[in-house]
Design goal:
Structural class of chain A: mainly alpha
CATH architecture of chain A: Orthogonal Bundle
Number of helices of chain B: 12
Order of helices and strands of chain B: HHEEEHEEHEHEHHEEHEEHEHHEH
Oligomer: heterodimer
Number of strands of chain B: 13
Distance between the termini of chain B: 75 Å
Distance between the termini of chain A: 13 Å
Order of helices and strands of chain A: HHHHHHHHHHHHHHH
Largest interface: A-B, 53 and 51 residues
Largest sheet of chain B: 6 strands, mixed
Number of strands of chain A: 0
Strand content of chain A: under 5%
Strand content of chain B: 15-25%
CATH superfamily of chain A: ABC transporter involved in vitamin B12 uptake, BtuC
Largest sheet of chain A: none
CATH topology of chain A: ABC transporter involved in vitamin B12 uptake, BtuC
Helix content of chain A: over 70%
Shape of chain B: elongated
Radius of gyration of chain A: 20 Å
Number of helices of chain A: 15
Structural class of chain B: alpha/beta
CATH class of chain A: Mainly Alpha
Helix content of chain B: 25-40%
Chain lengths: ~350, ~325
C-alpha cells in the first residue's frame, strides 16, 4: 500500500490543487446562500459586501441571520472539517494505517471524556468560558493517543494495522464507559452533558472561528511541513530512520499537533465521526498517496465534505436540525466498508 | 491475511454497532411520542363505594389500560418519576413513599428518601428490596419482562405517563384512589382547574409569539413544539408558540428563531452559579439583537421544571408565565 508513484507529473498536481482551491470558496458560497431561512440571493450578496465594507447593517433581520449566524457556522464547519481531515491524513501516514483516525483510534472519545469531566466537575478558567473544556479535551486527546500507542508498542513493536486498530477500538469503548460513569456521578448536570455529547455546530461565533483558524494554522501548519517525513514513514520506519529522519521527534511532534487539533475541534463541535477517516481516502483516490499533495488537498476536501454535510443537517428536516454526526456517520460507514472490500480485492 | 480479514469484519461490525448505538441513544432525547398521549383513560369511574366498610379494595386502570386492584389503599409505595413524587406529596401522602427515582427533586424532602435507578436504567432488584406494595413508573422504556418480574415479587406496577393537562388530572385521580386520598385528589384537581380557568379568563396574549428554549445555544437549540405542556399553556394564555409546526421536542435552527422573531422567550436552562445567567447569555447572542424579545428584555427563566413536568406545579408555571407577560407589557 505504500508505493509512491513517481510517474505522475507535477503539472497535474498544480491543476488538481487549483481545482480544489476554486471549489472550496464555491461550496462556501453555496452554504452561505442556502439555509433554513430563505434569504434572496441578491440580499445575501449585498449584505456580505456591506459587512465587508464596514457599513452599518445592524437592525436588518437578514443581516443577523447571514452575518452573525450563518457565516460563522459555515466557517466553523469548514475549519473543523479541514482540521479533522488533516489529522486523519497525518495519522494514516504516520501509522502506515489506512484506518487510523481520531474516531477509530479513540482519540475523539478521549477528548470528549476530558470535556465531559470539565463540565461535570465545573472545571473552568476564569474569564474564558470555553477554555476549561477545551484544555481538558486537548489534554485527554493527547493522553489517549499516548496510551493507545504505548500499548500498541508493548504488544507489537512494528505497530501493525491490526494491533493499532484493535487497541483503538478497545480503548474507545473503555473511554466511552468511563464517560458514562462520570455522567452517572454528575446527575445534576446530566442535561448539559447529554446535549453536549450530541455535538452541534450551532451557536458558533467569530471567536470560535478565530480559535479554530489559529489552531489549524499553527498545528495544521506543522503537520503540513512534515509531508516529506510522512512520505518516508509510509515506506517504513526503518527506511525513514535510514534516510535521516528523526523518527522519535517527528512522531511526537505530529501526535501533539493531531491531539491539539482534535481537542479543539471536539470542544467546539462535539465528536464528529468519520470526517478524518473518509476524506483522506477520497483524496488519496484522486491525488495519490504522496503526502506533499495528499495533506494540502485533504485540508480542502475535509472543509468541503463537512460544509456540505452541515448544509444537509441544516436543511433536510427544516425547521429541525439533524445532528451533523448522523450525516457524516451515514456517509462514513458506507465509504468505510467500501474501502475494506476494494482494499481486500487489491490485496489478493 | 486471514487474521486481517477477521479483524476487518470485527471492525466493520463494531463500527456498525457504534452507529446504531448512536441512533438508539438519540431516542433518549426528550422526544415525546404523540401516540402515548392518545389514551388517558378515565380513572375516576371506578370509585369504590365508601358506604360499605367491608370492601376496602381499590381498583384503577393505569395509562397502559391495565387494571390494578389492591385489597386496601397502599401504604408502602415507590415512585420513579419526578412528577409522581410531586403529586404524592401534593396529596399529603409523602410519608407513604419508601423510595424514589434518582431524578426526583421536588419537594426538597423527597431527596431524603432512598433513591433507585429509573428510566432506561431501572433496577428491579433495588425496587424489590424496598418492598413496596405499589410502584409508579412511566411507560417510557419499560419492558413487559420488567413489570412481570415486579408483579411476581408482589409489587403492583402502575404505569403513569401524562402527556397533557387532562392527563395530569387523570394521574392525580388515579394516585389519589390507590393511596386512599380520593378527597385530597379531588380538591387538588379542582384547585388546578380553578387556577387554569382563572388564567384562561383573564389572560389575553393578544396573539403574541413565544419561543420556548429547552437547552442553551452552545448545545444546539432544543425547543418544545405541539403536544408539550409548554405549548398547551401558551395556547391557554392566548400566546402563539413560534414552533407550533414542530411536534414534541426537537432541535431547531438558530436562523429560524431569529426569522420568526418571538415577542417573548421562555428558557428552562439551569444556572449553575458561574458565567452568565441563561437570560444574560440569550441577551448577548450575536445576531439576536433584532429579536423583539431580546430588544425588550422579555425573557423568562423557569429553572425548576414548572412547565416541563406533568405535576400539579404546572398551574404555578402558568401563573408565572402570565405574570411575566403582564409585567412585560
Amino acid at each position: 500500500m505504500a508505493q509512491i508513484p513517481h510517474k505522475r507529473k507535477e503539472g497535474l498536481y498544480v491543476l488538481e490543487y487549483l481545482a480544489f482551491l476554486a471549489v472550496t470558496p464555491a461550496v462556501f458560497f453555496l452554504c452561505v446562500c442556502v439555509g433554513s431561512v430563505k434569504v434572496p440571493l441578491g440580499d445575501t450578496v449585498r449584505l456580505i459586501l456591506d459587512a465587508i465594507r464596514g457599513s452599518d447593517i445592524s437592525g436588518i433581520k437578514f443581516a443577523s441571520i447571514i452575518v452573525s449566524v450563518r457565516i460563522p457556522r459555515v466557517l466553523s464547519a469548514a475549519l473543523v472539517g479541514a482540521s479533522l481531515s488533516l489529522c486523519g491524513a497525518g495519522m494514516q501516514g504516520l501509522l502506515k494505517n489506512p484506518l487510523a483516525d481520531g474516531s477509530t483510534l479513540g482519540v475523539s472519545s478521549a477528548a470528549s471524556l476530558g470535556a465531559v469531566i470539565a463540565i461535570a466537575f465545573g472545571i473552568t478558567v476564569p474569564f474564558l468560558p470555553f477554555a476549561g473544556t477545551m484544555i481538558m479535551a486537548i489534554l485527554f486527546a493527547f493522553l489517549g493517543l499516548l496510551i493507545i500507542l504505548s500499548l500498541a508498542y508493548k504488544l507489537d513493536s512494528s505497530l501493525s494495522t491490526n494491533t493499532i486498530i484493535l487497541i483503538g477500538v478497545i480503548f474507545s469503548m473503555f473511554v466511552s464507559s468511563i464517560t458514562s460513569l462520570v455522567i452517572t456521578f454528575a446527575s445534576d448536570k446530566i442535561k448539559h452533558i447529554t446535549f453536549w455529547t450530541m455535538g452541534s455546530l450551532q451557536g458558533n461565533n467569530y471567536t470560535h472561528v478565530l480559535i479554530l483558524c489559529g489552531a489549524l494554522v499553527i498545528f495544521g501548519g506543522v503537520i503540513l511541513l512534515h509531508a516529506r517525513e510522512l512520505n518516508a514513514f509510509a515506506v517504513g520506519e526503518d527506511n525513514a530512520r535510514n534516510i535521516g529522519v528523526n523518527v522519535r521527534r517527528v512522531r511526537l511532534t505530529i501526535l501533539i499537533c493531531v491531539s491539539a487539533l482534535i481537542g479543539v475541534c471536539v470542544s467546539i463541535g462535539g465528536t464528529i465521526a468519520f470526517v478524518g477517516l473518509v476524506t483522506p481516502h477520497m483524496t488519496r483516490i484522486i491525488v495519490g498517496p504522496n503526502h506533499k499533495k495528499l495533506l494540502p488537498v485533504s485540508v480542502f476536501a475535509g472543509a468541503i465534505f463537512l460544509m456540505l454535510s452541515d448544509l444537509a443537517a441544516r436543511i433536510l428536516l427544516n425547521p429541525l436540525e439533524l445532528p451533523i454526526g448522523v450525516v457524516t456517520s451515514m456517509i462514513g460507514s458506507v465509504v468505510f466498508i467500501y474501502i475494506f472490500i476494494t482494499g481486500r480485492r487489491k490485496g489478493k | 491475511m486471514n487474521a486481517k480479514k477477521i479483524i476487518a469484519l470485527i471492525m466493520a461490525l463494531a463500527m456498525l454497532t457504534f452507529v446504531f448505538c448512536g441512533c438508539a441513544k438519540k431516542d433518549n432525547a426528550p422526544v415525546s411520542s404523540s401516540d402515548l398521549a392518545e389514551q388517558t383513560p378515565p380513572a375516576e369511574e371506578q370509585t369504590p363505594d365508601e358506604g360499605e366498610p367491608a370492601d376496602t379494595s381499590v381498583s384503577v386502570i393505569d395509562m397502559l389500560g391495565r387494571e390494578v386492584t389492591l385489597d386496601e389503599p397502599a401504604s408502602r409505595i415507590v415512585a420513579l418519576t419526578a412528577a409522581d413524587c410531586e403529586i404524592i406529596y401534593a396529596l399529603g401522602a409523602g410519608d407513604l413513599l419508601v423510595g424514589r427515582g434518582a431524578y426526583c427533586d421536588y419537594p426538597p424532602e423527597v431527596l431524603e428518601l432512598p433513591s433507585v435507578e429509573s428510566g432506561y436504567d431501572t433496577n428491579i432488584e433495588q425496587i424489590i428490596d424496598l418492598e413496596p406494595q405499589v410502584l409508579f413508573m412511566s411507560t417510557m422504556a419499560q419492558s413487559e419482562e420488567q413489570s412481570k418480574q415486579l408483579e411476581d415479587a408482589g409489587v403492583h406496577v402502575v404505569m403513569n405517563d401524562a402527556q397533557n393537562i387532562e392527563g395530569v388530572y387523570s394521574s392525580i385521580g388515579m394516585i389519589g384512589q390507590l393511596l386512599g386520598k380520593q378527597a385530597e385528589a379531588d380538591a387538588l384537581i379542582a384547585d388546578m382547574k380553578a387556577k387554569f380557568d382563572d388564567l384562561k379568563n383573564k389572560a389575553d396574549g393578544e396573539g403574541k409569539t413565544v419561543y420556548f428554549e429547552v437547552s442553551p445555544l452552545q448545545y444546539g437549540l432544543w425547543t418544545a413544539g405541539t403536544d408539550t405542556f409548554m405549548n398547551e399553556i401558551a395556547d391557554m394564555l392566548g400566546l402563539v408558540n413560534i414552533f407550533a409546526d414542530v411536534t414534541g421536542w426537537g432541535e431547531v435552527s438558530e436562523e429560524q428563531v431569529i426569522d420568526r422573531n418571538p415577542d417573548y422567550i421562555v428558557t428552562i436552562s439551569m444556572y449553575f452559579g458561574e458565567g452568565p445567567t441563561p437570560i444574560e447569555e440569550i441577551m448577548s447572542r450575536p445576531g439576536w439583537e433584532n429579536v423583539t424579545a431580546v430588544k425588550n428584555g422579555a425573557i423568562l427563566n423557569l429553572q425548576n421544571d414548572e412547565l416541563s413536568r406533568p405535576s400539579p406545579r404546572l398551574a404555578e408555571g402558568a401563573q408565572m408565565l402570565y405574570d411575566f407577560i403582564n409585567e412585560a407589557k
